[in-house]
Structures
1.
Amino acid sequence: MLEYDQVELPSCSSASATSSPALESFIEQKPPKTKSLRKSGKPYQFVPSACQVCYGKATGHHYDVASCNGCKSFFRRVTIEKLKYRCSAGNACYTNFGPGDPVPKCRACRYKRCLEAGMNALGIQSELRKHSENQPLEENSSEFGKEIVVLPRIKEPPKSIEAQVTDLINHLMHLDLKITTFRDCTYNPMSFPTLKQAIKNEVSIIGLGDRLGPMPGWPLSPETIEASRKPNPNPGSPRILPPNVKKWFSYDLLTVVEMAKTFDFFKKLSENDRFFLCRDTSLMVSNLMRAYFSVENKTDKFIRADGQTFVPPPKWIPKEYMDNLSSDIMMRAIKTLIRLACTKVEYLFLRAILLCNSAAPDISASGRNILSTERAKYTVALLNYTMTHHGAAGPGRFAEILNVIDVLERQQKDQRDVNVYITLYRPKHVKLALFDDIMLTC
């Protein structure tokens, strides 16, 4: 957005006209010409010493009212941006207001007083037309014998790459705090929606964490953990867990879907593209989140937010499958992050890059373009961050962080393969809607 400063320069015609001595003496004797009317058609007056809005020192007639620069700027900003304010005191803040009194801080009443004093919004429109981008860079006005040169001025300079990266980091940090609050809150659904049902509502429920508050009784006591691991007393019916024990695997997958809804790019995708993206990335992102949670808690063991370690499997799952899943597959991401000494910022960028998977199967061409653009943004930001903090070793560090994606992809494939065998032994009455939509994808 460009604004323009007008600088008046004497034209060639005016210089030649004053070169005659006779004409110079005539001009000296001629009384100075004064303007009697302003552009609004109203006569010029002497500027009063007080602003008619706040009784401060007036600097001139602004929008047809003698006012100070502060009231002028306030009226202009409110008018251009169409701001709306409400007064909690019945619009009476300036009643009985006089010179020397403290200026009320109510912006609604201040704008009302500007209007009552006679400030004219048409004057702002005239300014905007004069400074619009369509105005030519140079204007020659022979009518007044002056040459007007219009100089472009940048209103808001573009942000540097470092500033843009900082903004992204702040946004991802804030989102991570919201996710942590959602994970730790009292929201504990007994059943979960299908993936199509979960992505149908564009509004994320991540904000429930702030409204519901933290789950009581965490970390869980040994007695509560023992109660949660007892066999189902009513086989063939849904298992009822203690109220502060969550069904973590499904809850983690739901958290990833709700996190994706907070990104602007997710709203631009079609419903089908959202389904395919979450189907392909939710498991990898949840694995990354669980792994980094363990790293943050300075352990190489699998740990839950409620203090539980790896939950023993139901008795119908063959032991050899669960041993492979718990001792090898689920530990891969944890060991990789520990070996890399992955920082919080690197983890947040990696999670965003992983979520914007433009290579996910079945996504439309338009969806791939949206995801590729978004992924490039976070990838460039990660590269800039590693270059800043690791110098010459930055590109190598950048490659190491991105290689974690390969680990997560192999981990996801092996999890799904093992789950196929586990499903063969699962009782028919056990229904896991969201889990099955994501885990049974080949």
2.
Amino acid sequence: MWRLWVPLCVLISLGVTSTSSVAEPVAQDSGVYKAARQRHGVAVIRVGLMPKDTSEEYEITFWNSIKDSQYASDYEAYLKAYPNGRFAPLAQARLARLHANASNPAAAPATHEASNPAAASPAQSPQSKAPPAAAAQTKAAPASAPPAQASAQASAPAPAPPKAAVAAAKPGPHDIQDCSSCPILIPVTPGNFTMGIDTDDASERPAHRVTIGHSYALAKYPVTVAQWNACVTASACPRLSNENNASPNAPVRDLSWDDAQQYVKWLSKISGKPYRLPTEAEWEYAARAGTETRYWWGNDMRKGTANCKDCGPPWHVEAPDDVGSFAANAFGFYDMAGGVWEWVSDCWHNSYKNAPSDGHSWDEPNCQARVIRGGSWRDGAGYMLAATRFKYDSSVRYNANGFRVARDMK
């Protein structure tokens, strides 16, 4: 009997997948994004001998999150992170096709190549889409949103009139703005809260008490395209693609952690204040705004409260809406759920075991993967939880990643 059991175990470990509409829990996060979360309604469950936290698994998970994308920047990000990766030839082919179609609008819509047998991972299997109701209840690997279908375009409402430059608005009576180009900040009163959640992903456990004893200020909105371009004009930040940063009042995106560091360095120089990225604990404390519920507004999803693909209007598939388009939380912060993923200062750890309890940054020497928080407009409602966290390579740009700034109050 054991002779039959061993091969079966090996087969399972090499990637037999479950197509349940509900994702099963996993022992730990296994890649750039969560490999065993439901994607398009299909949970990929890896058990047995498959490595849980290796560079190979990171690459597989990264590829799974973009392999159906129609955005050239997704494949460019993969090739930058894995120039000699197992999927590099396929990424290059899709990138070439997307560029060809962009230069020839009359070309037929791109269709994906069959998987390369030599490059195919044993951990992959065909995936199908689940009903929207099922997909909205669980988290999936952050998906690359496909172009809107013609039928959807036909029924879409007319574009909304241009919004005011929210991030450039006059600061409120308790807000801080250190210079004309500086983001508006809100002072955050020290306090304590429960960070993480024990009923969701393993990387968000254990839920633990954190006491923030220091005063700090956090940006009211994510950094906008216009604010980033002020740094570009000063020759202190790289110029970004207009493809992902067309609206001046939208959150700037397609940024790496390293890019964000350049911006805060410039901001510190022109303002004379100690600007930086927020720590992960500072970010979650501000996002929760005194609550301990799943979302900052309660335990149940409520339409129209976050900028995500199934969170209700205003929303469109092409890009995140302008900052401030959705309601602020109780502390006055906008867009802490959806819009763009936001870089924080901390190095990625697979769980909160041994995490600092004082709200300071949790760093490591030679750290390569940094934490991103908040979810994006391309993700589902399950990503809007206040505790949701992921990681990304600090030197790689991705078109759903942005940031907001913080500074010490001394």
